[in-house]
Specification:
The chain is an alpha/beta fold. It has one domain: Vaccinia Virus protein VP39 (Rossmann fold), CATH 3.40.50.150. It is built from 9 helices and 7 strands, in the order ααβαβαββαβααβααβ.
Length: 252
Amino acid sequence: MDDTGARAEELFLEVFESLPRQGPGRRACTARALALCAGLPEAPLVLDLGCGAGAQTLHLAELTAGRIVALDLHRPNVARLGATLAARGLERRVLAAWGDMARPPVPPGRCDLVWSEGALYNLGLARALPLVRELLRPGGHVAFTDAVWRVADPPAEVREAFAEYATMGTAADALREIEASGLAPVGHFPVPDEAWWDDFYTPLLRRVGELRAQHAGDAEALAALDAIAAEAEMHRRHASSYGYDFFVARRP
């Protein structure tokens, strides 16, 4: 990586590590998806894959009485969540763990609920969902959000932005992947635009503004910050062409 790329990555992390969450979502969506997971034990074992800073992990801790393992590969996220759990007195019930979601530290067939908001794309659904199925006990549930196309021919700008997610499809495509993995779809719903703006982009743009003020006169830093803010502006223009859906499925 050259100096320009390293600087851009440094600023990217400086923005995202400070945010309350690293992608679209909100407590109401977590609660709605959890309500679709009928028959959970009173104190379920929950695995939160790709937990980020743990906004949804904390919501799950409020909404359930279970034990939660929150897994992330980015050590600063794990450290930040661990500190939050300690401050809230949750560290005996919720574990912030460093690790790869492809090799989670939970034995097969033990989880009552596997959760993942905006993270399974790192593996792709075709790889991630069979792995999740093996983690679940019979009758256990998985709930996850995933980016989906809302139109057949998205604008080129949006296609380019999602180029790293080569297998991104429609909600119907995701449902087919769920069934192909041996899971039974329970329900799905779109993550509302408020969860993009109020919970994600508003804090992001606020932090970008703070850093622009700190780096005034530094053209390289300002260009990197402009690139980060461009995602929000793209969403403002083209939100009707893509979005996140929340999917809930069950291991038969």
